[in-house]
Automatic annotation (TrEMBL):
Pfam families for the chain: DUF5063
Organism placement in taxonomy: Bacteria, Pseudomonadati, Planctomycetota, Planctomycetia, Pirellulales
InterPro entries for this protein: DUF5063, DUF5063_sf
Gene3D superfamilies: Protein of unknown function DUF5063
Protein name, entry field: DUF5063 domain-containing protein
Length: 153
């Protein structure tokens, strides 16, 4: 496994540990999110077996609610955002929720970690890459924007 993939997996573990902890420093979230986003290009699955015979667990809505509540100690929660920043016509701002962003990121990373810990490394890497493109990458970018705005204010 490449050092870049190993670093990404270390950052997945760091993020999950941060999220599962009883105390949440916003600067730690910022640093880990930046490292995860920077590591995405290294997740090349062309030489990996991405199939698996096991169906790994997803967090589900009830656990997501607990994951969301766990972040109540963060100094910000809501922020203004747009869904499609490159769409200029008829794009209205919406209210973003940092707790939602971070809980959704956790759910996607946690799911891949279940596969990784079971030895399905190709599946885990493929899941992290695909779910980044389809889901948690949007949340990560929105969370970074909100966290940066918090630091600039």
């Amino acid at each position: 496994m490449s050092p870049a993939i190993e670093a990404f997996i270390d950052n997945v573990n760091r993020y999950c540990e941060w999220h599962e902890s009883d105390s949440h420093e916003i600067e730690a979230a910022r640093q880990i999110l930046l490292a995860l986003m920077q590591g995405i290009p290294a997740l090349d699955t062309t030489r990996l077996d991405t199939s698996c015979s096991t169906e790994y667990e997803f967090r589900g809505h009830e656990r997501w609610k607990d994951d969301h509540k766990r972040l109540a100690d963060l100094p910000i929660q809501y922020y203004r955002a747009v869904f499609y920043p490159l769409q200029f016509e008829n794009e209205e701002s919406v209210v973003g929720d940092l707790h939602d962003d971070l809980a959704d990121i956790y759910g996607d990373l946690w799911h891949g970690l279940q596969g990784y810990n079971a030895g399905d490394i190709g599946y885990a890497i493929d899941h992290w890459r695909t779910s980044y493109d389809q889901h948690w990458g949007h949340h990560a970018a929105a969370a970074m924007f909100a966290i940066d705005a918090y630091y600039r204010s």
